[in-house]
Amino acid sequence: MKKFLSALLACILALGLAMFAGCSKEGTISGNYSEVTEEDWTAISEALDAQTMFGDMEQEDWNFGFEAKAGFEFSAVNGDENISAGGDAEYKFGMSAEAIGGAGSVNFSFTAPEGSENDNISLEGNVYNDAQYFYFGGSIKAPGEEAAAESKIKFDISSLFGGLTGGTATFAAEGALETETAPSAEIAAILQQAAAELSLKVEADLSSGTKLKISATEETFDAVLAEILGGSTAESAPATFTSNVLEVYLYIDKDGTFAQAAANIDIAGVIEIPASDTEEAQTIEFSVKGTASIKISADIPELPDDLDSYQEQV
Question: Which of 2, 121, 127, 180 would give a disulfide with 110, using CB separation of 3.0 to 4.6 Å?
Fold first, then answer.
C-alpha cells in the first residue's frame, strides 16, 4: 500500500504540473508565429537564460511564483472492454528569498474493464508544499480496496521534483530554492537537436519578448512509434493516428523573465493487433486529450496548521 501511494502520487503530481491534459483554450499562447531561422535561434538562445529567466535571486526583495491549471482525459476501447482515466489539478506556488510554499487540489480516476483483474483507482484531495515536503490530504482508493480511505501523507520534495529544475535542486535552510542550471546556449542547442531528431516544428514570435511554439509533426509520431517498435517503419506499424496534435508554448517577456507556459494534446488512433495461435485479432481505439497552463503569480499561499501530523512516505 505504501509503495502504491508513493508511486501513484508522484506520477499524478509530476504529470499534473508538467504535462497534464484537458479541453480548453488554456493550452495555447496567442502570437504571430513563424518558423525559426538561424538568426532567430541566436535571439532565442539569449532569451533562454536560466540565470535571469526567474529574476535576480540576489535581490533582497526577490520573489517568484506561478498558478497552474490542468486536466486530462484518456480512453482505450477494445471491443466491449473500455479503459478510461481522467483528472484535473490546480496549483498555486510562491517563493522568495526567505520562504517557499504551494497549495492546490488534484483529482484522478482510473476505470478498468468490468471483470478485470485490475481495479478502479481514484485520488481526490488537497496538495501543499513547503521547503522540505510535498503533502497530500484527501481520499485514495488503491487496487484491491473496496472503498476510498482518507489519508494525510507527505513526500520528500527534492526526491520528487529535483530533476525538473534543469539541474540539481536543493533547499537552503531558510527555505529558498538553490539550483545549478545549464547555460542558455546549451538549452537552445538541446532544443535544436531535439527538433532535428524528432522532426519537431519550432516557431517563434519575437516582436515583444520571446514566444515559442513547439509542435509535433506526422514525422514526429512516426519516429516515436518506430522507436517503440524497435525500428519498424510507419507503413508496417500496427498503429495509425486519426489525430496527432501535441503543442508546447513558452513565453519569455521583453525583460527576459519567464511569463507563461502552456501545452495542449489531442491524440487519437487505432492499434491493430493481428491474430495469433492463441488470440484473435484485436482492434484498440485510443484517445488522449488535454491542456495545461502556467502563469506567473507572486503570492505565497497560506498553508494549513496541521502539516506536522502528515505521515512521511519513503
Answer: 121
State how far the Cα of 122 lies from the Cα of 181, in Å rounded to an integer. 36
Distance CA 270, CA 282 (A): 10
Q: Are 204 and 213 in contact (CB under 8 A)?
A: yes
User: Is the CB of residue 154 less than 8 Å from the CB of residue 310?
Assistant: yes
Beta strand pairing status for 311-312 and 149-156?
A: parallel
HSE-up of residue 245 (Cα within 13 Å, Cβ side): 14
CA–CA gap between residue 223 and residue 246 (Å, rounded)? 14
| Amino acid sitting at position 273 | I
Distances (CA, A) of 80 to 75, 121, 257, 267: 13, 20, 51, 22
SS3 16: helix
pTM for the structure as a whole: 0.78
- Calculate the alpha carbon distances from 63 to 101, 212, 270, 314 in Å: 12, 24, 47, 31
Higher pLDDT, 77 or 236: 77
pLDDT digit string, tens, across residues 184-207 = 567 888 888 889 888 999 999 999
Pick from 146, 103, 148: nearest CA to 304: 103
CA distance 172 to 155: 18
Distances (CA, A) of 269 to 198, 226, 306: 20, 15, 46
Q: Which amino acid is at 159?
A: S
CA distances from 271 to 75, 110, 216, 282 (A): 13, 21, 20, 8
